[in-house]
Amino acid sequence: MLAFRCHFRHFLKYVSKDWWHDLVPFAFWRLRDVVQHGVLVSSPLKSEISGNHFKLNQLSESTGSTAELLSTTAMQDSSALDIFRGSDRNSPSDYNKALFLLKNNPPEQRLDVPMPYSQYLQLESSWSQSKSENNISEEKRYPSLSYDGLMRIATVVTTQSALHEYTAAGFREIIASSVKEYLAVHESRAIPGIIDSGSTTVEEPRPHGWASKEPDQSFIYFRPGSKRRLQVAFECGFSEDYKALCRDKDLWIRHMGAKVVVLICLTEKPHYRSPPTASDNIEDMRAEVDKMEQHVAEVLGKNIGQNSYGQLEYRGHIWLGKIDELFVEVWRAEQPDPTRKWVMKDGHFNPLPNIGLKIRDFFPENEWASYQIPDSEVQFPGSDQLFLKVVAAMQATATARFAHFLHSRQT
Q: How many CA within 13 A on the CB side of residue 349?
C-alpha cells in the first residue's frame, strides 16, 4: 500500500485531457473510465493561455457549512435565494427554493423541506412538467426529489461531487465482489438472488402519503415468483450532512424495509465555497481548466507522497479542502448503535479486513435459513482500489468546481 501511494504522484501526470462537453459543471465522466479500470492514460498538456486574464479578488475561505450562493444570472427564477446546506428551516419560499434547485441543478446541494404530502405532489408535478418541457429523461438521476411520508419532509438533492459518487461506487464494487466470491465457494445457487440494484428508487406507502427514496447504492434480494426485498442501502455524504444521513438511515430501516444501512462519511476542511467574485472574460475556458487540472494533479501527487490529501488551491482559492477522515457505519434495525470503522484517519488510509457487514445481511432471514450457509464477515480487501477512487475523485471534484465557477460567471 505504501509503495502504491509513493508511486501515485507519477500516475497523476498521465490523466486524460479529453474536454468536458460544453463545460458542463458537473461532468465528472472524464475520470470515470480511469476509476472504473484503475488505469490512468497519458495525454499532453494543451498550450498555455495567451492574451487571457483571470482574477479572483477579495477571496474568503469558509470554514463553515454554508453552500455557495447561486450566481446572479441564475437567480432570475427566484430572487434573493440563499440556500444553506442541510437546512431544515421552513419558510414561505421553501417550495420555490426546492423547485429552483430542481430546475437549475447547481452542484452539491441538499435541501430538506417540511411540507404536507399534497404540496409535495404539486412540487413533483411541477418538476415533471419542467422535465417534459425540457426533454429531460425520467431516468436521469440528478436532480432528485424524494419524500418521507412519516416525517413529511421533501428532499431535493442536486448533482453530487465525484468524491460522493466514486466513493459510494467503490464500496459497492468491493463488497459485491467479496460476497459473490464467498458464495461461489459455499453455495453458488444463492448468487443470482442478490441483485446489485445501484441507485434505483424505492417507494412505499406511508400513513401520510407515499415515501420515495433513491439510495446512493443498494442491493436487493429477488427470486422469480416472490416480492423483491431491499437488503442493504448505502448513503454517502460529507461530515456536514451527517444528521441528514442519519434521517435517511431511519427512513430506510424503519419505513422502507431495508435490513441494513451503510453510511459513508467524508470530512472536507474547509468545506468548499465558491469564490464571491466574478472572473474577467476568458476567451478559452477549456485551456484555463486544463491548466488548472494539471496544476492540481501535480500538487496532489506531491501531497500523496507525504500522506496528505489536499487542500487543492489554484489562483488564490481553495477548490477542495483537505480530506483527512473517511468512516463507515453499519446500522441494523435490531441494534441501537452502529458499527463504525475508520477507512481514513488523520490522512492515513487504513487497510480494513471488513467494515461490519455480514453475508446474511444480503438475504431475507427465511431465505438465509433455507440455504444453510455458514455466516461470515464480508471481507474488504480492496483498500488500494478504494484509495485510487478517492484520490482520482479529489482531482475530478476540484476541477469540476473550478469549471462550474467559470461557466456560471460566463452565462
A: 24
The three three-digit cell numbers of residue 11, written as one number = 500516475
Give the pLDDT confidence of 227-261 residue by residue, as tens digits.
889 999 999 998 778 998 998 898 888 888 899 99
Q: What angle do CA 310, 82, 214 make, to 5 degrees?
A: 70
Q: How far apart are CA 152 and CA 170, in angstroms?
A: 32
Beta bridge partners of 219: 196, 232
Determine the 3-state secondary structure of 136 from DSSP: coil
> Using one digit for the tens of pLDDT, what is the confidence trace for 46-65?
323 333 344 554 333 333 33
- Domain locations in the chain as residue ranges: 1-37+161-411
Q: How far is Cα 281 from Cα 165, in angstroms, rounded to an integer? A: 32
pTM: 0.75
DSSP letter for 209, please: S
Half-sphere exposure of 317 (CA within 13 A, CB side): 23
Which of 157, 325, 175, 323 shows the shortest CA–CA distance to 245?
157
- Cα separations (Å) of 109 from 100, 277, 407? 11, 20, 17
Cα Dmax for the chain: 72
